[in-house]
Amino acid sequence: MEFEGRYRQAQRPKYDCLLFDLDDTLYPLSYGLAIECRKNIEDYMVQKLGIEDRKIPDMCNLLYKNYGTTMAGLRAISYDFDYDDYHSFVHGRLPYEKLKPDPVLRSLLLSLPVRKIIFTNADKVHAAKVLSRLELEDCFEGVICFETLNPTYKSTISDHDDFEVEGSKATPTRSIQPFDIIGHFSQPNAVSELPKTPIVCKPSEDAIDRALKIANIDPQRTMFFDDSVRNIQSGKRVGLHTVLVGTSHRTKGADYALESIHNIKEALPELWEADEKSVKIGYSGKVAIETSVTA
Ligand SMILES: [Mg+2]
């Protein structure tokens, strides 16, 4: 039995799974999609939710900082809107043409002998478009996206309400006054608690835990790649191995830092080395026997 245990350990690759954020991780921030996305969010807040222009920068910062995404924050402070409408407005007009096929990354990913899964806060249409433009669609086993973690939401606005009227200056009918988040943070000794959001998204540890459960991932045997320091720090707290992408400076919570995802092989050769070991042993013909005995 002792021999059997050692044997299984030797043939096992170091990691079972690689979990990748999408935007600004699989392609560089310098493509400018993030800036465009931010502009679209601001336009949505003014045009669709009727929020005053002058409040937008502070509101965006506070919502993003406290809720993970501006969208999650808007829902927390009682703005109601259709999620698909939000996503198509915010992502629908992005300059996707800036994303080009990436054959280098494609062959790196395809040569990695472990499970590869996308984990993004974005919606599935956006994820599919980005992966298609980069020509990486078939490099991943699956995509965990907004809809995966927020499957049951129904807007409280009925289909018959004139939410999207022409001119798009419509304010949704609300019985509840939105929570004044700017006012909240302008009080030096604010005692009231921030309202909770119904949206599940990174960097909440709950979102990461749920994603791990859905994809049946063991965090101890998974490498998590993301360009966001706070996502990486949450990932570390739930037990993932972490790689901060987009910078060569490793910050707290990041086990590794990569200036570009293209550096993955130089920075993490063990992802490939582990497989070589396993193949060598596999050729000995003993793997199948071990598997059938322990199954
Ligand atoms: Mg990102």
From TrEMBL:
<dbReference type="InterPro" id="IPR036412">
    <property type="entry name" value="HAD-like_sf"/>
</dbReference>
<protein>
    <submittedName>
        <fullName>Uncharacterized protein</fullName>
    </submittedName>
</protein>
<dbReference type="InterPro" id="IPR023214">
    <property type="entry name" value="HAD_sf"/>
</dbReference>
<dbReference type="InterPro" id="IPR006439">
    <property type="entry name" value="HAD-SF_hydro_IA"/>
</dbReference>
<dbReference type="Pfam" id="PF00702">
    <property type="entry name" value="Hydrolase"/>
</dbReference>
<dbReference type="InterPro" id="IPR010237">
    <property type="entry name" value="Pyr-5-nucltdase"/>
</dbReference>
